[in-house]
Specification:
The complex is a heterodimer.
Chain A: E1 4-13, E2 22-32, H1 37-50, E3 73-74, E4 77-78, E5 100-104, E6 113-115, E7 118-119, H2 122-129, H3 151-161, H4 168-172, H5 179-191, H6 193-196, H7 199-212, H8 223-227, H9 235-250
Parallel strand pairs in A: 1-5
Antiparallel strand pairs in A: 1-2, 3-4, 3-5, 6-7
Helix pairs in contact in A: 2-7, 3-5, 5-7, 5-9, 7-9
Chain B: H1 2-28, H2 32-60, H3 78-85, H4 91-94, E1 98-102, H5 106-118, E2 121-126, E3 143-144, H6 156-166, H7 173-193, E4 218-219, H8 225-242, E5 246-250, E6 252-260, E7 263-271, E8 277-281, E9 284-287, H9 308-315, E10 320-321, E11 326-332, E12 355-359, H10 362-369, E13 383-384, H11 386-390, H12 400-412, E14 424-427, H13 429-435, H14 437-455, E15 464-473, E16 476-477, E17 490-492, H15 510-530, H16 544-563, H17 569-583, H18 590-610, H19 622-646, H20 670-673, E18 675-680, E19 689-694
Parallel strand pairs in B: 1-2, 1-9, 2-5, 9-17
Antiparallel strand pairs in B: 3-4, 6-7, 7-8, 10-16, 10-18, 11-15, 12-13, 12-14, 14-15, 18-19
Amino acid sequence: MEKTINITLKVWRQAGPKAKGGFQTYKLENISTDSSFLEMLDVLNEQLIGERKEPIAFDHDCREGICGMCSLYINGHPHGPDTSVTTCQLHMRKFKDGETITVEPWRSAAFPVIKDLMVDRRAYDKIIQAGGFVSVNTGGVPDANAIPIPKAKADEAMDAASCIGCGACAAACKNGSAMLFVAAKVSQLALLPQGRVEATRRAKAMVAKMDELGFGNCTNTGACAAECPKNVSLSNIARLNREFICAKFQD
Amino acid sequence: MAKKEQIAATIKSVKEKVEAVKDKVDQITGDPATIEAVDAVKNATVKIAKAVKAAVENKDNVITLAEAKIPEGPLAEKWTNYKAHQKLVNPANKRRLDVIVVGTGLAGASAAASLAEMGFNVLDFCIQDSPRRAHSIAAQGGINAAKNYQNDGDSVYRLFYDTIKGGDYRAREANVYRLAEVSNNIIDQCVAQGVPFAREYGGLLDNRSFGGAQVSRTFYAKGQTGQQLLLGAYSALSRQIANGKVKMYSRYEMLDVVIIEGRARGIIARNLVTGKIERFFAHAVVIGTGGYGNTFFLSTNAMASNGSAAWQIYKKGAYFANPCYAQIHPTCIPVHGAFQSKLTLMSESLRNDGRIWVPKKLEDAKALQAGKLKGRDIPEEDRDYYLERRYPAFGNLVPRDVASRAAKERCDAGYGVNATGLAVFLDFSDAIQRLGKDVVASKYGNLFQMYEKIVDENPYENPMMIFPAIHYTMGGIWVDYELQTSIKGLFCIGEANFSDHGANRLGASALMQGLADGYFVLPYTIQNYLSDQIQVPRMSTDLPEFEEAEKAIELKIEKLMAIQGHRSVDSIHRELGLAMWDFVGMGRTAEGLKEALKKIREIKKLFWSEVFIPGTADDLNVELEKAIRLADFIEIGELMALDGLDREESCGGHFREEFQTPEGEALRQDDKFSYVSCWKFNGEDKEPTLIKEPLNYEFVKRQTRNYKA
């Protein structure tokens, strides 16, 4: 049978980037524990629209944990209390009847608030633009099986590549560092022969861009990997550091 | 038009002349034999004239091979011939040409990156906060290519043939052959970009099999193939953004295309953060905005996926082809509550090792529905593996439309396995016994985890429950062989166009088509158009055409904001979705489709009188964004129903219950419906005109699809 709970929500509301924000409290009754966290917010928004009020703005899209669009800092955790999930995969069965739930946007200097719970994450795109690619044009590439790649390496690259660019790592970090995000991309490409060619140049360029955009320094607290919805491993940061130091020596 | 009038005038003058001769003969002779002879001449003349007139009128409503720009020659040489003879643009001139690409999915991102690499200036638009989030990212299972790395008999021809057959012989031969031809280049390209495809221990690429094929030709990256391919295209795009060759506009939504002297010359877009309406010029416009599956409200599409860009260009004169061909994917997590916002797909790859069944006994099904039994409690001999029973040759790997209908048939007969009676089992117990839990986990672990998070049940211990859901739309904007729409300078790629999948798409073919269009087809064909445009200077966006287009958008938004009714956008969208699912879903009838048209028209009235949009238009306003899209979804739904009503046959994803074999298989009517239905817009609330593109099968013999033997 369907179970329902009653909850109180404390939600960050902020009209625009320069407006002063604050928490607002909402009560919700008979929320099905089978509904996802975002479906619960849908219910709240329907309620607000019914009262002719402005609904809460929040980012979301695929609702299956892969697009990286949803964010939300829930009860002090990026993507909420459950592990290995994004907010859209978080279900209300993880909360207790009568619980008060606090919902905030990502808090990071490099991710300014646009409205309510929505933030601007274009800084991540800019880091990728600085070097998160293999410099090949369309066409004129060798056969896909021309270069064998050990399965273990390919699998490791795949694990690093599973980063969804949601920003939870930077939001979780007390320094607001984007190291895990940068490390995931640098690792994926450095592990594969196709990306190895420009690995050091890439590491340097991406780290420089990260620093320039106002992300903080990494002090190895590990909060990023603990909160990462895709379990991107801290070992990627070690690999990035290795690439980066090699690059410095080459200079 | 002038031609038609000319013919009408000729017919009239012939009639008058014959009439005059008859009168004269009457006066002179009065001889009955002469009168009879003259009468016969007159009748014959009128008949010929009528036939000519009808032929001319009919010709206006038919698209010829030449208009579809299908190249001459044998199938395997068409694309080579085309490339050898097409016009190109030299590097210096490329710099002077601007191209707008709308969308950053597999098709949009790959096209934007490739065009920029070649030297064109590209303006790329997406509604998400980053181009990396387009819904291609959610594709799970894989991408097909005819590499034949497995040495299991694959070839370009076989991939072509499977795709044509899978599409129930409703796709263009030439397009599909080209798709199969370039499929191998896509895999090479992606590997070069650093896409981490799954590999064997020897270091070479691994493959798996998918529905509708008897070979293993699907390349994959865990259950996240779409993500990895999109990130590959996104990285190529990012490189060009850094090079300054692509100007990226994220959180922008295209609201209209601007046509100047019959050619697409730009778009009007809304900045979703500020609400500002802006104008953009380009020498050509490319639409890659995906499908319209969200017409059904509940679908596997992302929340913001929409059909509006396609619908706007339809209203400006681009034909909309085969709108009724929508794909219902057999393996989705069943609907579980009224609050549900979307349906989650479980990859088709699961059917490689999972077996689909329902109980043989109705009383077992009843007990499952009441929650008194679990799937694992039902003994082997009481299980009906209905796909294996009905389709021994393909078993659980029949194409999607066949698998979906078979699930519906069992559930309609009362054998559904969950509380709503709308679910079947997908069982891995055999695979776990055969391969061990670890192997199953390494292949499908992330999918199992996703299932458990949503349903709160462990699929290693109890079989998964699945049910069909709307997933993909094969129909879309009509394009010729060059991927150009019926408007000059306006191109359409990826799921947004109608081109390659016929009436049903095979698994792992959407990624293939999106990337084929973007990397290897459009970058060639668009040059054939742009080579004529090198003398055209950049135009001012102050031209009256831009002015008018923007004004029309502003008026529409004002009208929407002024309604101030009492219904939320979503509540109306849910109503539309229900009408679509009930009457334009898996089983359609003439009666049901008429009912759908009636209901949709009522919903349209309700929307335009009762919708309530809070906030203002000159600010970030999510409800307004949704309302603009819903206004279009309602009209798309109407056209889907109209097209479904017109197509009196069953083919692929379009199943008309009146047209089935005694065993319940789809019954095509090749003599009547072997054509692409292209709909031409005639104005608001007016019936669109049906234009037909005949499908001539020169190289493949059409057969009844058979997955049994």
